Predict the 3D structure of the following.
Amino acid sequence: MTSMTVNGEAIHYKLDPETPLLFALRDASNLTGTKHGCYSGDCGSCTVIVDGRAVLSCQLTIAAAEGADVTTIEGLSADRAHPLQQAWASEQVSQCGRCDPGFIMALAALMRATPNPAPEQLAQLPNICRCGATPRILKAVARAAQVAAPLAAFAPPKAEQSNSIRFSNGSSIEDQIPPNDS
C-alpha cells in the first residue's frame, strides 16, 4: 500500500507501486482535474504540485510519491479564489480547457517561489497550449502577479531570444509579452 497526502487528506493507494500518479489521482481518487495528454512528459497537462514543486504526474510513480504532499487543481482553492484561477477567468484564457489545470498548477508552484516570473522562466515551463492562448496566459500571469505582489508592477525585461517554442507557440517571447497597461 502506498500512502501520501492528497489535497490535505491522507490517502492509501492499493495499487501497483509502479502506477503513475496521474492514474491514481484520476481513477482511484476521482480527481479528474488533472488531465492526461501525452503520457511522455511533453505537454504538461498532468502537472500537479508535489512537496511544493510542479511535477508531471504521468512521469511519477506512486511509489516515488510515497509520503509526499500532493496538491491537484481541486486542492489549489476550493472556491477558485487563487489569484491564478481568478486571473485565468478574468483574462478569458480557457479555450478547450485541456491545458488549463496543468498550466495553473505549474504557474502556482513557480509564482510561490517567484511572485513575478521573468519571461525566460515562463518559457521554460513544460506546458503546451495547442489552442494558442499564450497571449492571454501571459496577461493572466501578469494579473496574478499584481494581486500576489501588489507593490511589484509587472514589467519584465525583454528577452533577446527564446529557444523555446513550447510556450510561445512558435513566436518569439517579445511577441507574447502583454503590454504594461498600468
Q: What stands out?
A: The longest helix spans residues 134-148. Residues 9 and 37 are 26 Å apart (CA to CA). The chain has a mean pLDDT of 84. The longest strand covers residues 2-6.
